[in-house]
Amino acid sequence: MxxxxxxxxxxxxxxxxxxxxxxxxxxxxxxxxxxxxxxEHILLEIRNxxxxxxxRGRSGGYKLAKVPKEVSISELLRLIDGPIAPLSCLSRTAxxxxxxxxxxxxxxxxxxFSEVFWSYLLIIESLTLDDMIRTPNxxxxx
Length: 142
Known about the structure:
This protein is mostly helical. The chain has 2 domains: 2-68 and 129-133, Winged helix-like DNA-binding domain superfamily/Winged helix DNA-binding domain (Arc Repressor Mutant, subunit A), CATH 1.10.10.10; 73-124, no CATH class. Helix content is 46%, strand content 6%. The protein contains 6 helices and 2 strands; from the N terminus they run αααββααα. It has a two-stranded antiparallel ribbon. Helix 1 packs across helix 2. The chain is elongated. The two termini are 26 Å apart. The relative contact order is 0.15.
């Protein structure tokens, strides 16, 4: 997930320029300090989800297809890593009842994790790529 977010931050930084250009995988890898071998598959998934677009050819590469405020971090998490719930019985997108659970309503494990998970969801579902690019870069690029 971290590589996907770093790549999207690099693409968002490029999109914010006066004359944004499509970025090659090599450029994205260099700017995001991400191994190129991981990026190809990640960028394909993100492109298929409509978050970025790609063009072929000499001046081709990748660009954001959405504005950063429209790129949901929770949707990216689910896209790249799958369900984000700590227990399958709490998942919105991949719900499964636990095999050893006789009653979800009285399950103390589910109750404890659900309280923590719903708090996490409130935060993570409110975040967008825009929130990430507005955070100052504390790493020196000199």
